[in-house]
Amino acid sequence: MTAKGALLSRTNTYVSSPPEMRWRAKTQSWVRRHEGWLMVAPSMALMLAVGIFPLVFSLGISFIRWEPKIPGRPFVGLANFRDILTSLEYWIAMRSTAIIVGSGVTIEFFFGLGLALLMVGKVRGKRYFMALLMLPVMMVPVVVGYTWRILWHPAYGPINQILGWFVGHRVTISWLTNTKTALFALIVTEFWQWTPFMFLVLLAGLTAVNPELAEAAAIDGASRWQTFWRITIPVIRPVIMVAILIRTIEALKLFDIVFVITHGGPGLSTQSIAFYLYRTGARYFRMSHTAAGSWVFLVVVAVIISMAVRQFQKE
Amino acid sequence: MKKKFFQLSTVLIVVVLISALFLVGGKGKKEAPEGAAPEETVMRVGSQKERAEALAKKYAGVTVTILTEGIAAGPPKAFAPQFEEATGVKIKVIESPYVETMSRPLVEHEAGTGAIDIYRIVPDWVPDFAAAGVIQSIDDLVKKYMTEEDLADIEPGYMLATMFYEGEYWGMLMDGDIFILYYRADIFEDPEAMKRFKAKYGYELAPPKNWEQYNQIGQFITDFTKGKVYGGAGNRAPGQAYYWFNQLFRGAGGRFFDPETMKPTINGEIGRQTMEQLVKELEFGPPGMVNWGTAELWSGFVDGTVAMQFSWPPSGRFAEAASGLANYPTWLPPTKVAGKIKYALLPGPFKGEGPPGAGMMGNGFWTLSSDTKNREAVFAYMMWMNSAEMALKTSLFPNSLMDPYRISQFAAPEYKAAWPNAHLYLETLREAGKYALVPTKVLGGTEFDEIVDVAVTSVMGGMPIQAALDEAAKKMEEVVNRLGKDRVKASYKDLLKMQDEIRKLQY
Question: Quick check: B25 and A61 CB within 8 A?
Fold first, then answer.
């Protein structure tokens, strides 16, 4: 039968069959055309419910005033965003987050790269050293926080005790209650936990570099530094970008160690954005303000990360 | 391409519309659901415990769920089988970290789960939770099922400071947390120390009557013992530092607001003196005290490092752990000061004479959830645990952090016999009730406490005192304006009224 004949045959059947049969045929035809969509619909619905719905919901409530201590939930337009943008406490938290993340990720990167360069190739005891090195990153952040809170203790902490051995007298620096040293203490704690992550990712990148490139460079008279700077770094640039991006995104969510070690103090000096949002949402019950704050932060971070990615891709 | 865009847009619009449905309306104060008990004569004979059991028996088979801080879960868990056997009402105890006892009730209420019947909170949170509709007044239930004798047994100062809000009962006091002074009597009564102190300062070495004396005594002890024992210590770490500020500030007559204009007054003279006092204590306190929380404070006291401290009553019991009153907490070092501790009321004024001050800080307070489905059954359990017999058992429970608040507890022979000075301990705690300082039980109280906490830790971190206090005042004003000046004013005046009622107990 020709295609035209088949079409005529189907058309004739459609025209001449009873309504139920026509409806069934129509449905079956629709199902056949949308088979793919129907198969992914359940998982899509779940993803929408878990992923997109909270985002849209939080955006929605950022335009109302939802604060259980105050009756009603009136529409307030951009008032919450205005409060956030004019809130000194919010921007202090933003600044603290930027300092901890910026310094922390930078130090983690350089140390991680250094360790990776040491460990690339055949190194005696590499397996055992790597297993030890990975322990911090496997620890739950809350446990890390409590551990380091004890380490930083001014009277009973080992850090002051060890410093005391070097200077020859008792050291009682209050690391966590002095605004000048509290941020430093958090950066060191973050560095201790996440440098192994950087190390692992960069080691994977360095291991994948073709050794012939370095050999060729050596033959051409390049020094080790020139080989590293002109060949190795450009080759592992995508890996560097991934490592820094992933670590930065993760670091921006900083909450656990702030909560456990300093509780945002002294004053507000170590309050991260995540801690600020927790405080306003879970303790002050300011739902809409918290939602608006989250969206402002999301936009700021998205802009910075896209600029960084674009810059990397250009180079 | 156009079709795909249309499909995606349709999906997004549907999601937005569904979200919008959740935003419609709002929860406010809920009307209390009607009790299920049929109208009948309310039992008025028998003890409070017996009457609570009789009430609960009507609801046999029901489960009552309580959300409580982990450290306070011991007694409800331990006595649950006894209540279940007596009444047929099952008790489920959910333990939670302290910070979650603030956020979870709101989450449960907003979600309308009805899963939790009793929230163990602190009285400071009552106005906020009431405004949010999370908890409900139990005034009608107290008046229906409790007698004058039941209520008269609760130390009046403790009751006025905690159980009332806007003229109604809003919960059951379960824990008599009140600040008094704990001091090393062996040092205070050392003849050489007494002689030298008198020679230096011109008055007898005795518990201080004002904060100036506290500083003098503190510095003297640190010098006299050549740093082996520090004169005094207190919490300065974030999270609880505000209690120490509030004790000094309110005890000296400080007010957070002008009650008519609602302008914050925390940054006035008394606020400044309070902060100066908190800083001054660091001079004779142990190294690192600026980092101290409760664990460090109590550890320092029981191991003999600190001669004077003021905080919650369990510290006085644990220092005498040799008595066997309570199993010793694993997070404290062994006590080296058993038999050496005495007790006194805390000073009020910074200088000169004036009444003492005793802050009611963080009392364990059981409140009734607005979403409970078994109002009377839940109240029966609260009434049972609050009864004289159960309150005494709770305060004597091993490792219990629950403190006495009933007159019968203060007079209980078994408590008085717990250690040689236990009667002094109980007498001082009871006496402190006359000078009880109402906690920050005002609309926005949770925020005000945190603002004060931030101010204290800012000063400890190096910020100038006046700048920190001015910043705190500014933030408090923002909170007042946001929540509504008239509403906050009404609840603040209620706090002041309770404070005035307590003051009458002193005469």
Answer: no
